[in-house]
Design brief:
The chain has helices at about 1-5, 20, 30-45, 50, 60-65, 75-85, 90-100; strands spanning about 115, 125-129. By secondary structure, it is mainly α. The chain has a two-stranded antiparallel ribbon with strand order 1-2. The longest helix is centred in the N-terminal third of the chain and has 16 residues, at about 30-45.
Length: about 130
């Protein structure tokens, strides 16, 4: 994708811009997804970090989230790679928030109540979800 953009290879497909190319039905990438993938490629492959770090099997969206720490000492960045490998995306995002000085978010479920009428007997009752 990065090579297509950098070398304007999208013109071979009849597209005038890279954004037009990634919107083609055969690709149908969101612009943010395409640029995230290219950023991961730049930061991990072109910089040779992928040869130093074991990133195989880590989804691009997790690698994209930890790219912001790539300039930290390699030992610290290795910890982020391990967190990306072992944590869910939401847990990884929580770790990033904490590292950036934010607080840990606490999930509080919101209960909703609906009045339901039985179609057979006409009784009304409250349904809470």
């Amino acid at each position: 994708m990065k090579l297509v953009n950098d070398n304007k290879l999208y013109k071979e497909k009849g597209c005038e811009t890279f954004n037009e190319y990634i919107a083609m039905p055969e690709l149908a990438f969101e612009r943010s997804t395409a640029y995230a993938i290219m950023g991961v490629y730049e930061d991990f492959v072109e910089s040779n970090l992928s040869e130093t770090l074991d990133i195989e099997g880590i989804p691009y969206y997790k690698l994209n989230r930890i790219r912001q720490f790539k300039d930290e000492p390699i030992e610290k960045f290795e910890e982020w790679v391990l967190k990306a490998r072992e944590n869910s995306l939401s847990d990884l995002n929580a770790e990033i928030r904490i590292a950036r000085g934010g607080g840990e978010e606490v999930y509080v479920p919101v209960k909703k109540s609906y009045s339901v009428i039985c179609p057979k007997c006409g009784c009304q009752f409250e349904h809470v979800i």
